[in-house]
Amino acid sequence: MNYEDIKKILDDMGNSKIDSLDIEFPDGTKLSMKKNQTLVTGVAQEVKPLAQVNVNTNAKNETNIDTEAEENLKEVKSPMVGTFYTSPSPNAEPFVKKGDHVKKGQVLCVVEAMKLMNEIESEFDGEIVEVCVKNEDMVEYGTPLFKIKE
Q: Does the residue 57 lie in any domain?
C-alpha cells in the first residue's frame, strides 16, 4: 500500500457516509480510520454575485443588457472530482481556448479521477467565452469549467 492508495481511501471515506473503517491487508498491515463526529452538516450552495443596481435609468439599462448577455451563456460543469487538464498531454496544444467555436460532442478538456483520464465534451454548439479553471487545478463536482455563448 502506497501513499496514493491511502490518499484515495481517505478521499473516498470523506465523500461517503461511513463513520469508521477497519482494513487488514494480506501483508498484515492494519488501517483503522474514524470520522470526527463533531462535523457540521449542511448543503453547499453556489453563491452568485448580485447585479449592481444604480438609481439613474442609464445604469438600469446597462444592467439589463449585462443580464441578457449573461443569460445567453451556458456553463459546462465538471461531472466529477479530479484534476482539470486543458490538453491531452503536458506539451500538447489545449483542446480549446477562449474565442474558439465548439460543436456539441467536441472534447473540451480532461478531468483526471483515480488515475483515469475522463474527456469532458461540449453539451452544445457555441463559442468559448471563458475558461473558468486553470490547467492542473483541482475541481469538484459541479465546478464550472467553461462558459459558452450559444
A: no
